[in-house]
Amino acid sequence: WDTNKYDGGHEFDLDVSVFMTGESGKVESDSNFIFYNNPQDAAASVIYAGDNRTGEGEGDDESVTIEFDKIPAYVEKIAVTVTIYDAVARAQNFGQVQNAFVRLVDKQSGAELLRFDLGEDYSTETAIVFAEVYRHNGEWKFSAVGSGFNGGLEALCRQYGLSV
After folding, report:
1. What would the DSSP string read from start to end of 30-49?
2. Which of 3, 115, 118, 136 fits a 20 to 30 Å CA distance from 143?
3. pLDDT (tens digit, 9 = 90+) per residue, 11-70?
Protein backbone atom coordinates (compact mmCIF):
# COMPACT_ATOMS: atom_id res chain seq x y z
CA TRP A 1 0.00 0.00 0.00
CA ASP A 2 0.87 3.65 -0.26
CA THR A 3 -0.74 6.66 1.34
CA ASN A 4 -2.25 9.67 -0.37
CA LYS A 5 -0.93 13.06 0.67
CA TYR A 6 -1.68 13.12 4.36
CA ASP A 7 -0.31 15.45 7.03
CA GLY A 8 -1.60 13.80 10.20
CA GLY A 9 1.81 13.17 11.70
CA HIS A 10 1.29 9.41 11.99
CA GLU A 11 2.52 6.55 9.84
CA PHE A 12 -0.09 4.22 8.37
CA ASP A 13 0.11 0.61 9.58
CA LEU A 14 -2.10 -1.73 7.59
CA ASP A 15 -2.52 -5.22 9.00
CA VAL A 16 -3.66 -8.40 7.28
CA SER A 17 -5.92 -10.74 9.23
CA VAL A 18 -7.49 -14.00 8.12
CA PHE A 19 -10.72 -15.52 9.40
CA MET A 20 -11.21 -19.24 8.70
CA THR A 21 -14.94 -19.92 9.01
CA GLY A 22 -17.12 -22.98 9.12
CA GLU A 23 -20.48 -23.57 7.49
CA SER A 24 -22.09 -20.99 9.81
CA GLY A 25 -19.86 -18.23 8.45
CA LYS A 26 -18.32 -17.84 11.90
CA VAL A 27 -14.86 -18.71 13.23
CA GLU A 28 -15.24 -21.94 15.19
CA SER A 29 -11.97 -21.72 17.16
CA ASP A 30 -9.76 -18.80 18.23
CA SER A 31 -6.84 -20.52 16.47
CA ASN A 32 -8.70 -19.96 13.17
CA PHE A 33 -8.27 -16.20 13.52
CA ILE A 34 -4.84 -15.49 12.03
CA PHE A 35 -3.23 -12.09 12.68
CA TYR A 36 -0.06 -10.53 14.12
CA ASN A 37 -0.64 -12.10 17.58
CA ASN A 38 -1.61 -15.54 16.20
CA PRO A 39 0.44 -16.08 13.03
CA GLN A 40 -0.93 -19.51 12.09
CA ASP A 41 -3.85 -21.84 12.67
CA ALA A 42 -3.49 -25.13 14.59
CA ALA A 43 -3.07 -27.14 11.36
CA ALA A 44 -0.43 -24.73 10.00
CA SER A 45 -2.56 -24.41 6.86
CA VAL A 46 -2.65 -20.60 6.98
CA ILE A 47 0.55 -18.80 7.98
CA TYR A 48 0.94 -15.04 8.36
CA ALA A 49 4.47 -13.91 7.45
CA GLY A 50 4.58 -10.91 9.79
CA ASP A 51 3.72 -7.27 10.21
CA ASN A 52 5.10 -4.56 7.91
CA ARG A 53 4.34 -1.39 9.82
CA THR A 54 5.12 1.17 7.11
CA GLY A 55 4.38 -0.27 3.66
CA GLU A 56 7.87 0.82 2.64
CA GLY A 57 9.97 -1.09 0.15
CA GLU A 58 9.34 -3.11 -2.97
CA GLY A 59 7.16 -6.18 -3.32
CA ASP A 60 4.30 -7.37 -1.16
CA ASP A 61 4.04 -5.56 2.18
CA GLU A 62 2.39 -8.42 4.06
CA SER A 63 1.69 -11.97 3.00
CA VAL A 64 -0.18 -15.06 4.05
CA THR A 65 0.65 -18.57 2.86
CA ILE A 66 -2.30 -20.92 2.43
CA GLU A 67 -1.64 -24.64 2.05
CA PHE A 68 -4.96 -25.89 0.75
CA ASP A 69 -4.20 -29.56 1.35
CA LYS A 70 -3.74 -28.86 5.10
CA ILE A 71 -6.95 -26.90 5.67
CA PRO A 72 -9.27 -28.76 8.05
CA ALA A 73 -12.38 -30.21 6.40
CA TYR A 74 -14.76 -28.09 8.50
CA VAL A 75 -13.34 -24.82 7.12
CA GLU A 76 -15.58 -23.58 4.32
CA LYS A 77 -14.25 -20.06 3.80
CA ILE A 78 -11.08 -18.07 4.34
CA ALA A 79 -11.68 -14.32 4.54
CA VAL A 80 -8.65 -12.12 3.88
CA THR A 81 -9.06 -8.75 5.59
CA VAL A 82 -7.01 -5.61 6.11
CA THR A 83 -7.35 -3.10 8.92
CA ILE A 84 -5.64 0.18 9.78
CA TYR A 85 -3.93 -0.09 13.15
CA ASP A 86 -5.13 2.54 15.65
CA ALA A 87 -7.12 4.24 12.87
CA VAL A 88 -9.55 6.17 15.08
CA ALA A 89 -6.85 7.72 17.28
CA ARG A 90 -4.80 8.59 14.19
CA ALA A 91 -7.83 9.88 12.22
CA GLN A 92 -7.06 7.48 9.35
CA ASN A 93 -9.26 5.60 6.89
CA PHE A 94 -8.94 3.65 3.64
CA GLY A 95 -9.83 6.73 1.58
CA GLN A 96 -6.31 7.93 2.44
CA VAL A 97 -4.71 4.73 1.12
CA GLN A 98 -3.81 4.04 -2.49
CA ASN A 99 -2.33 1.09 -4.38
CA ALA A 100 -3.72 -1.45 -1.90
CA PHE A 101 -4.36 -4.90 -3.33
CA VAL A 102 -4.64 -8.56 -2.53
CA ARG A 103 -3.36 -11.20 -4.89
CA LEU A 104 -3.11 -14.95 -5.12
CA VAL A 105 0.36 -16.13 -6.13
CA ASP A 106 1.55 -19.66 -6.85
CA LYS A 107 4.38 -20.03 -4.33
CA GLN A 108 6.40 -22.44 -6.49
CA SER A 109 6.32 -20.54 -9.78
CA GLY A 110 5.82 -17.01 -8.44
CA ALA A 111 3.04 -16.51 -10.99
CA GLU A 112 0.24 -14.14 -10.02
CA LEU A 113 -2.99 -16.11 -10.48
CA LEU A 114 -5.58 -13.57 -9.31
CA ARG A 115 -5.53 -9.97 -8.13
CA PHE A 116 -8.00 -7.50 -6.64
CA ASP A 117 -7.07 -3.81 -6.46
CA LEU A 118 -8.90 -1.76 -3.87
CA GLY A 119 -10.22 1.59 -5.03
CA GLU A 120 -10.02 4.78 -2.96
CA ASP A 121 -13.76 5.04 -2.30
CA TYR A 122 -13.59 4.09 1.39
CA SER A 123 -13.62 7.52 3.03
CA THR A 124 -14.74 6.33 6.48
CA GLU A 125 -13.87 2.64 6.57
CA THR A 126 -11.05 1.36 8.79
CA ALA A 127 -11.40 -2.35 7.96
CA ILE A 128 -12.01 -4.14 4.68
CA VAL A 129 -12.78 -7.71 3.69
CA PHE A 130 -10.66 -7.77 0.55
CA ALA A 131 -11.32 -11.29 -0.66
CA GLU A 132 -12.59 -14.73 0.23
CA VAL A 133 -11.35 -18.15 -0.76
CA TYR A 134 -14.17 -20.66 -0.36
CA ARG A 135 -15.07 -24.27 -1.07
CA HIS A 136 -17.52 -24.94 -3.88
CA ASN A 137 -18.26 -28.48 -5.08
CA GLY A 138 -15.01 -29.73 -3.60
CA GLU A 139 -12.84 -27.03 -5.21
CA TRP A 140 -11.39 -23.80 -3.83
CA LYS A 141 -12.67 -20.61 -5.48
CA PHE A 142 -11.61 -16.96 -5.12
CA SER A 143 -14.00 -14.04 -4.71
CA ALA A 144 -13.06 -10.35 -4.63
CA VAL A 145 -15.24 -8.74 -1.95
CA GLY A 146 -14.18 -5.17 -1.09
CA SER A 147 -16.63 -4.84 1.81
CA GLY A 148 -15.78 -1.95 4.14
CA PHE A 149 -16.39 -1.70 7.88
CA ASN A 150 -16.08 1.02 10.49
CA GLY A 151 -14.63 -0.06 13.81
CA GLY A 152 -11.40 -1.69 12.65
CA LEU A 153 -10.36 -5.18 13.68
CA GLU A 154 -12.92 -5.27 16.50
CA ALA A 155 -15.78 -4.88 13.99
CA LEU A 156 -14.41 -7.70 11.86
CA CYS A 157 -14.04 -9.97 14.87
CA ARG A 158 -17.70 -9.42 15.76
CA GLN A 159 -18.70 -10.03 12.12
CA TYR A 160 -16.99 -13.43 12.23
CA GLY A 161 -18.37 -14.44 15.62
CA LEU A 162 -15.40 -13.71 17.90
CA SER A 163 -15.78 -12.06 21.30
CA VAL A 164 -13.69 -8.94 21.74
Report:
1. GGGEEBTTB-B-TTS-EEE-
2. 3
3. 888 889 999 999 999 999 999 999 999 999 999 999 998 655 444 555 556 789 999 999
